[in-house]
Predict the 3D structure of the following.
Amino acid sequence: MKLWNRDREKHIRNSNGGVVPLLGVALIIVLLTAAVYFVADYVAESYTQEDRLSGWNYLYTDRAGAVPDGEMRLFNAQNPILTESDVKKDNIYFSKIIEPSDKAKNIIFITDFAPMKIRINGKEVYNNRFDSTEYVGNCYNAITLEPSTHERQVEVFMKLPFSVRFETYLNDGEATAVTLNQGFIIGAVLAGLGLIAVIAFGAASMVRRRFYRSLFTGLIAAFVGVAVMLHLLPEVTYAMNEPAWLRLTAIPEHMTFLLTTAFLNKLFKDRRKSLVAIVFAAVISAVMLMLAFTPLLVKLTIFGMCVLTLGAMVYTAQVALVQLEHRTQFAAPVFVMCAYYAAMAVFAGVLLMTRQRTLYIYDAAVSTVVVGGVLEYIYVHDYRFEKKNRAMSVQSTRYESYVRYISQFMQSMLNCARQEEFYQTAVDELTALLNKYHPDNTDIRSCAAVRTADGFEEVVNRGVPGCNYAVIEENCLKNSKNCIFAETFLDCVLRGEGRICAVFHFEDIRDGLDVFFMSMIETAYCGLETTYENLFIRDGQREINIIFEELAENTELDNGCSVDHLRHICEYTRALCLSMGMDEEKAEHIAIASKLHDLGKIAIPKYIIHKQARLSEEERVIVNSHTEFGYTILSTYANDPMLATAAAIAKYHHERFNGSGIYGLKGKEIPVEARIVSVCDVYDALISERTYKKAWSRGDALSYLRDNEGKLFDPEICEKFIDYILEKDDAPAEQTSETV
């Protein structure tokens, strides 16, 4: 029966709360970048305005090197060069009268790689390959005007290979073959800082290898600086005027986009395809540009470079988008940077196509520095993150043994027949847990009191003088907490049917704020409260499977889930067992046991369960340990058939049919009840909302099951479950597939 299978990207959008907010962040960064540019451009324009030489007369012409006939037009700040009517003409002629001067003057001409020749009073004084090539490798041209008491006419004959760029500046002094501008100096400074960073991070990585990734940001800064210098080289010298210099100096600046995209992509583990795409785009772009021998080919190549660059960035953004579904660390900022970088790349492409070199250089350099800064932040944060996780890994290894102590603690509590015995046992067993958790917890003092109509009646005291139980009760009520942790003390209130029944107090604790310590106590408390209610509040009810069922429900609530999940699993499991030919009694037996499948999560620290970002490898190992934790707790009661079945389900319900699960069991090696619960659990989890994802539709969840038959799930069980879900709906299957 064919199922409706929607675009899986919808799940990605749902799983991270929507990409629109992330795109909004990227847009804000783009706008901030533009704002910074306009401020900088205004300052730079004001700085250079006084040196500009304006008031040129010009006219387009088809005759290279000849003075055109016709009425000349004026070009100055108020009258830009018109291109609409004469854009098809390949040459332009400029003329200007220079006032007398008793000092030597330097006239600088900035063009768009245009071959040109200059005449003063009819005499040629400068020729930049005007008669031999369609375009040159330099934009900077300069001539010297000697001191004179007469006016002089300066004539400029210029070809137009790309655009009509004609900026002129008049300075005192003689013309030089090489000059400097602010952009070139900034590029040199950036390259120097990047080189210093590379040396510093290189030395640091020898001491601590983890710093080697910060070399990437140093390399990015150095590369961007060098690329800016090379890209501006045609604007600071006319010594390198071979056409090949245009192509050679343009490649590094363009490569900054692809290089930085590659570093963004490097943050993901599964990055081979996207890295190949980026390398392919880089190589093809470079080859295309080097083979562009005519102005038209250069223009087409620039367009192709922009398209390939944008394609590589979009591909990397898609990788980041997929990683968001899996809560991969830093997927959100990488996606934001990819979106920002893609927008800046499009803008850079427009600038290149319109021959706005200065704007393009700013766009490429600044956007790359922004992304590089974010990369360095990620590297530093990730270093701290992994350092913390290494310590967590060591501690979690110790923590596993405490789950057995918690199981023993619950057994001791269940063996209590009288309330007085229960309170004393609770204090003694919790103290024993504290002693086992930290070797220095040898002098712990403790006490407990029962809530009465008149106040509190102390029932246990192990060396605590004058404990104020009323203050403890008030603090717990004020903070809406059953356990209050401090560095050296712990307070707990025991509730029964919603009211406070008793107060426990412990002093002289070591590491009282450690997350594993708090998780251990919260787990013990959950068992303590559940057993108390069942033993002394609810008419002395002592059915152990019911106690554990309530404990499982409390665990679901603590983890931010609904107890409906357990009820659904029970319902699905019962129906699936019956459809497989099991009798009513066995089906009911497995269905009830299925409700305890995630009981082991009671021992998982809550901050890990509720974490919305990527789980670290250490955290993932801890979460996966819930199968072993559940088995450890339940297997203690293996003499109870229901709990023995529940123990097997708890341990193996995450095994995969192809053998790639936690314990490596394959196919029919996995207990049948665990294979059944596995399908039911995954389906209900998919159609339910979680802290890290939105609910999937029924049709998409069923499609996921079918796609993973024989991989994650038993094919026979999976098919029966799909049939059951489809038949459960009153509508025909064909109609259902169109509406889900």
Remarks:
- The CA atoms of residues 676 and 704 lie 16 Å apart.
- The first strand starts at residue 56 and ends at 61.
- The chain has 23 helices and 14 strands.
- The first helix runs from residue 9 to 15.
